[in-house]
Amino acid sequence: MKCRADLRVCLNCVSYDPRVAQQCRERRADPVLDKEAGNFCEYFDFIRRNWVPKAEVNKRAEAARDQLRKLLGD
């Protein structure tokens, strides 16, 4: 997700399902071509997700921290 990104998009909806026709379980909804763009679907409802932190280590961030430690003598 990036700054100023639309939140009301099909990918954030409880009815979004890539395995069904038009990727939407709500049969009354109008088809939306761009699932990542904002839309005004009247059946939209935010999906509830549990936040899970990334398990992988960011190599660029670690390299930057190592350079800073060397610079500061830590």
Proportion of strand residues: under 5%
Radius of gyration: 20 Å
What characterizes the major β-sheet? Answer: none
* Average pLDDT metric: 90
Shape: elongated
Can you walk through the features of this model?
The protein is mainly alpha-helical and 74 residues long. Helices cover 19% and strands 0% of the residues.
Summarize the structure.
The protein has 74 residues and is mainly alpha-helical. It contains one helix and no strands. It has a domain at 1-47.
SSE order and pairing:
Blueprint: H1 59-72
Keyword list:
single chain, 74 residues, 19% helix, mainly alpha
